[in-house]
What we know:
Layout: E1 3-7, H1 13-24, H2 35-46, E2 51-58, E3 61-71, E4 76-85, H3 94-108, E5 111-115, H4 123-130
Amino acid sequence: MSEEIQSFSIEYLEPCAYLYVEVFNSKPWNEQWSFNTARTRLFEITNTPGFVGFIFKQDELLGFLAGYCKQGQKSKSFYLEEICVRPDNQRQKIGTKLLDKLMQTLTSIEVKSVYLLTNKDGQAEAFYTKHGYQRKQEMIFMTKKF
């Protein structure tokens, strides 16, 4: 099996939406995505200015990541909006390879930081911590429902 990482292009939108539903409707997230809502979400992300994304294939699509660059007052940052790996292929370094490709790309375009949101104290936080991400104590996530 040959593995490859490619840029996330529009041709991967639907396969990635199916993967998104498979991953996030399963444990530990147990969300309720439909194919249409997942496709819309990914379409919006891919059409955000500064979009950067990659897919991981090994004969078939096994994972992807997507986000976008944002200009700050002194430097650019990258918001890692989504990373997704097929459940039965997790813990096989696919996420690590996607992050490595992302970091190479961001370094080449002079992005200075990456940020993301994830559930605390779970498998995802442990993954990001392993790769050098830290909780920001001076920042909080706030929401208002209506």
